[in-house]
## 1
Amino acid sequence: MKPNQSIRVSHMLRGIEDPVLIISTDKQVVLNANGKAIEVLANGKASQLRGLPLQLAYGGGRQDAFPKPLPSAFMLPVSQNGEISLIDFRVSPLKIEGKKYWLAIGRKVEQEEELQKKLQHLEQEKSLQQMKVQFMSMTSHEFRTPLTAISSAMDLLETRLQLDGQLSSFHRLQLRKMADEIFQLNGMLDEVLTLSKIAGNNWEADFKPVSPEQIIETLRYQYFSQRKDDRSLLISIEGEPRPILADKDQLAKVFTNLISNAFKYSTQKNPSVKLQYKKKKLVITFRDHGIGIPESDLPYLFTSFFRGSNVDGIEGTGLGLSIVKTFVESNHGTISVSSGVNEGTTFTLVFQEFADAI
């Protein structure tokens, strides 16, 4: 290797943290080595490595110690701090100005004790994760029981007051406030329970032909009609509606969250949903004209427990969009978002599996 070539190669080797050797293809001489290789293979003495054939330095002089051509992988023993370990080298061809060499990059082979420690650590993490999942599931179920009892008692109280002619506007207002809070708590518990199933890998998508526009229309009627602010959800459809292959319950959770957010983070204009049935895909956009999302928050928007920096005072858990992304992708869809502060937000879902195309 010419001097100017050697200089360029040396600069290249300095940028690699693992042990690296450049070996001639004919006599298998170590022509160059980076600092890490000299440190671990020759105790810091370059003269004991560079310029020597591999079989002389590590094969006891035996010609058969390293077959020709050099195999795609080989190991070299090293001694550090009185302990013997192995460096596993992976070999690939290298061409410099038309001449061929062997490039060998090595990594330390982990000892059985180190592997055992890592395995124990992974088992502990797995056990801790299972405990978290069980705790979330148990908490969700335990809270749901008293909430159901409170909701039933409120219904009985409202009915009794009405029968006795004592249901005033004050009573109606307070009962409505309590009902709203219970609805919000139940929604939060649903999100926690869903997240626990996802974290525990305890869920499967049940793919069947479903009509997204019917799901959205049902959700509008059940949850987003007769609002106190008189706003409503605008739905528009382009193209001929076709069923897609998806899990109906998962899609309902996705649509509920995105529609709810559209109302929650806006106060004046009506949120809208647009379904575009194209030849090979369905595009659904959920749009609001609310507070928007800061650009710096967008990369973290689908992370569990993340909430935007401009949503102080607005209730939420930071779980919804994480669940939305998981369910969209589990149904072979994609989700993207575009937004700006005080410019509103648009979520775009794309599904490409029409039921009639399967």
Note: The first helix runs from residue 3 to 14.
## 2
Amino acid sequence: MNLKNVLLIALASTLIIGCKGMRGKDGKPGKPGADGTSSKAVLDYSKVNVMDYANTITLEELEEQLYYYASDEMEGRNTGSPGQKKAVNYLRDQYKKMGVPGGGQYGDYFQIVPGKAFGKPELSSENVLAYIEGREFPDEVLVISAHLDHVGMKDDKVYNGADDDGSGTIALLEIAEAFKQAVNDGYGPRRSILFLHVTGEEIGLKGSKYYADNPIYPMENTIANLNIDMIGRIDADHKDNPDYVYLIGSDMLSQELHDMSEAANKSSMNMNLDYKYNGKDDPNRFYYRSDHYNFAKNDVPVIFYFNGTHEDYHKPTDTPDKIEYELYQRRAKLIFATAWKVANADERPALK
């Protein structure tokens, strides 16, 4: 065999091996940036069954984690308290276990919120941030949020805050884990996702305000905020029709975000999306009462997911045993499906 033929065979072998390296198990693309696959490679997300990843959000994990997060050990997670410190350490450790990096300025999981943000120099707390970088549009960021705090202890009674907002907090962990599984399968989101657990909601939306005033990722690059605050219970209006969730703000700044939300629901959970409180003139003022508002004030389109109030709201009886876990799971899956659609759309939601 002459030298020319040897070189041709070697070149052909290299090309074959290289092409095989661009595919993972079951013919799926390899992990972003691995096996020669560019992290900015364009993938056909229409071939992905979103529910394959939504279904990784399990009843068992939601229940197990919520029972711990809303246990007496956390002492009601009052902002700045030892119980709240335990809570943020737990969240950080969960993200580390699932392999989702910190979203802080230097890859940290904590954004320190100083006393001046609360008007109390002696008080210090933390927002918790985890982050998955986008494959195609890494500078555009979808923020999914929930508040990590509650109201602490009163008269030696622990206010566990299982629904408010243990439910949103643990749902956010599970949603992050579902996206991480997609990353592992080579289908990381086209846009970046910040999983943001904010502190100080119960004392005036302080953690989200601090983040909005000191964003790790520019607000103009923040394409939307999906905020989860109380999704584990049923209110009095839906006792006979519990397969619902209230959506607030979805069409206030962006009709396109609203349309994406409706389409994601139709193709996934097909729940009753109730817009009863979706108005700036709502006498309950729910639009102004959770952390999405600090994004909306900065012209970031928002959706607030909410089950309404109930008899245990802000009482020591808001405990994990009263959560409607199957409904809670369905709502978490819906939010994941909506986040998937927004993060992987061809264009970011346009403002009105």
Note: The chain has two domains: 1-30, 43-343.
## 3
Amino acid sequence: MLRIDDGPASAPASSAAPAAPAAPDEPRHWGRRIVAALVVIVLVAGALLGDAVARTRTETEVADQIATAVGGEASDIGVSIGGWPFLTVLVTDRLSSVDITAPTATVKKDQQSATFTDVTVHASGLRNVRDLQGTVMDRADATARITWKELSRLSGSTITSAGGSRVQLVRTVSVLGASVSLKISAVPSIRTEDRRIIFSKPQAAVDGISVPSTLLEPAVASISDKIDLPDLGNLKYQSLRADSRGLVVSLSGDAVAMKDLTGE
């Protein structure tokens, strides 16, 4: 019987070896994230620096212009611009707020002149801010002091503190046909409609004898007639009070033009 041998039997096919797991690429992803974060930080820091530089430069320029207008030194004028980012002003032409301080400011308007000290101004909602003299404030509140020396200059009489809320005015009056130099004590206030400082409740005595108020009132009225404070447009005089260094005036107003503050 013929037998055909086909050769040795084939070995069974072996199963394929499992593929090795791919190396994780997390380090690469974290590296990209760190680089992206650093880029963002640099951009933000650059924007902050640019905004701060522009703000500071503008505050300095505003101080220069105010100093020129009120006769002060620019280095003494404090200007602080509120709101962030500042550079949006290039688009909106608006600022949220500005605070201004000045140790002294002389305002001249319509032949009237007065020098104020310790001036503070808080303004909000400023419009047209790229032109200082065209700037309008939605709201402005201010305080300033009129020193005794300046008040005496304005009135033509010597005015000083009498302690508390009263002032002392030195005035010559006629008493029983004789001219007498009196030291009159009175309470100061401001008549808002015409910006005059007036004096009420006058008191004086000669040799321990009280002088009737009917004699004193014309004397203090003649002093008041000479104290006409500058018109500051929509920035209105609201009240005043006496302290040891002079009269502290409070002012406020809506739609106040920047030129009203400088008297231009």
Note: Residues 44-147+251-262 form one domain.
## 4
Amino acid sequence: MPTKQANTRSRRKSPFIIIVVLCVITLLSVFLLRKPKEVLASFHEKGQTYTTYEGVLGERKKITLPDGTPVILNSNTKLLVPADFAKSRTLLLDGEAYFDSAAHPLTVKTNILTMTSTRPAAFKMRCFEAQQGATAYVLSGEVKVSKSYHSKTDDQPEMLGPGNMVLANKEIDLMEKETYHTADMEAWLQDKLVFHDEPFMNAVRKLEEWYSTEIYVEGDVSAAGGINGEFSQAPLTRVLEEIRQTAGFSYKIRKNKVAIDF
């Protein structure tokens, strides 16, 4: 039978054990929360390994696929290339990228849209996993576009040729075929950004589209005036530095987002 002294020692150890257990649980929780989320995890093939290419904030990055296909990655973009790419010919994309592929078929999957070239083609996709919208543009060749998820309303693919595009929104289960001016795509490819007396907020939206970056504006923009300038192959920081001198704002970049303050 345990003595009174032994019972006292047992009771004294209990709070210590509880504290140790709580500390371990806390550390595990922190580790799990900090563990980076895999890009498009639900689209990963079982047992497959991927090489990830990442775009740089406010800049474009050019890479070459194993088959020689040139790719332009926009800011905040991730492209996953499987080890068996030569066989599967399938890529996973989170962000915005341009592909100019002589070899076909080439399939690019996002969480909303899937594009497959049926012959040599040049096309661009924009679809971020954290957003509900997506766009796809074809500059040359022919590309089949379909939804990457099961649709209750319309699962029929669209065939796109030069000058065709698709607008999609997963939240409302929408995918519409439209036309666009290919000159806009060619200007994007030349990486020549031009402002002609552009209202400030219009210029901000243009920068968001051009660099695939979220920009938040605080304060009164009325005194900023029109934005003017031409920028060739310029990173976002250089553009911001130049226009802030006339518009009169300060900015900070935090976690792949830009905050502008007047």
Note: The helical segments are 4-34, 85-88, 182-190, 200-211, 236-247.
